[in-house]
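User: I'm curious whether this sequence folds into something compact or stays loose and floppy. Could you predict its structure so I can see for myself?
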Amino acid sequence: MKASYPYPSGQSTLADAKARLDIHGLWRHFGFDGEPKANCRSPFRDDNKPSFSVNAGGTLWNDFATGEAGDVVDFFQRASGLPQKEACRKFIELAGGH
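Assistant: Here's the prediction. I'll summarize afterward.
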């Protein structure tokens, strides 16, 4: 996870949460095997031949075998299995917001 900082408005936004939490931190949070990197195995399915990618900044992912891709919030939603609205709320909470 990235370093935390106070929210000027007292409220956190999704953008604030994205600045605080990346895919590398979420990978550890969910206890996925391996490491998120440019060429790795998917944490979401059996992947005998690495076909998953996470950019160096930990902000984007791509599964070349399934065509799924997204940002850190999409990764959280996919990993948690939550509907989009609930995933966004939980993501903000996990990043230390409210």
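Summary: The longest helix spans residues 84-94. Helices lie at 14-20, 23-30, 72-80, 84-94.
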